[in-house]
Sequence to fold (429 residues):
Amino acid sequence: MNDKFNVRLSWAFYDWANSAWSAIIITFIFSRYFVDVLSPNVDQGTLFWTWTIGLSSLLAAILSPIVGSISDQSQKSKIWLISTTIIYALIALSLWFAEPNLINLFIIIILIFIGNLSYEISQIFYNGQLKLITNKQNFARISGLAWGLGYAGTVIIFIIYYGLFFLPADPIIDLDLDSYENIRISFLITGFWILLFALPLFITFKDPITDKLEAKNTFSESFKQIKITFNEIQKYKNLVWFLIARLFYMDGINAIFAVAAIYATVVFGMSTTDIIMLGIGTNIAAGIGSWVFSFIENRIGSKNTIVFSLISIFLISFIILFIDQKNLFIVLAIILSSFFGPVQSASRVYFAKSIPENKKFEFFGFYSFSGKVTSFVGPVLYGTIAFIFSSPQLGLASLLVLFAIGLLLILKVDNDKIKKLNFFTNLDF
Fold:
């Protein structure tokens, strides 16, 4: 294997590593544990959880242009990525101690806030590295591979956790069910998983050596650069429309990630086993969707991939509002998840195609900003509506408005150039 292959595969495998945080902690296991076990009641727990995720995402959005600017000036994305990854991995490990009645709920909220903030900021450096490891012709395939590996990694970690620690009557280590050790062990697995599989990228990736940018890694220089970037990005009117559109539809997607397990539990009475099975099924579907659409995207373009995915997400979510059968919900949720990976991967690729070469991390800071600046709206909107009306269905219905606005706005965006690639050649991997 050559060095280019190693770094590209390592970069893709970082999604395998970091997806454990979003799947185990944010979406499926800890969110439900927080609401069902740690909180005073389900309604208050849902409100606390959605506001914590929402506000941490908001702060990440505010910081993202600053962080991106600092990275571009210093050319040290690697050390930033390592630092932020270690933070949220250690917090995942610390959640082992989140035993009911033994730890203050406020402390847990603070830990989740910091962990999710670190996770979101890490994505700025990770996304920006895509332009450093490959060329435009292979953005879609490398990005799609990464999303696919992310979902595949989630499936594997679910299987390991469920097969070794949760399902067996006699797990490989003695676990106290009364203190929920059979659930809390998943948080330990998540932390070690992140650290282990992020390591290859930390070893293989090297920041470019360049004299084009001065390494003035200061906040004052970053703020000056941000002002310049705000003025510069306005020259790319099509890119501005894209970022605004993404702002809305990513609000909806992030909200679904934050409340999926809570919705399944409250509406359909799904058990922890049900949630784990749902997590496995949805992530398999999402991985397949990401991989398949990485090839389709080269044929139809990134914008058309986003449009098709958003239409599918809206229609399936609308149907879910009116069903009350658990099995039907599981089927629809699995189909729905197959479109999450494509819309996120295609968005990353469309943006990477459109930005100037010397503004990779700074513009990707704005990319993160556009996806997160109002990301608190989705979770907070769901949590607040569901709390006021005691109706998770109305909470979900409020998210459909975000998808509809995002879809209408993305239609204003220009189609990206489509490069016909042979299925078996030009992989440049």
In short: The two ends are 10 Å apart (CA to CA).
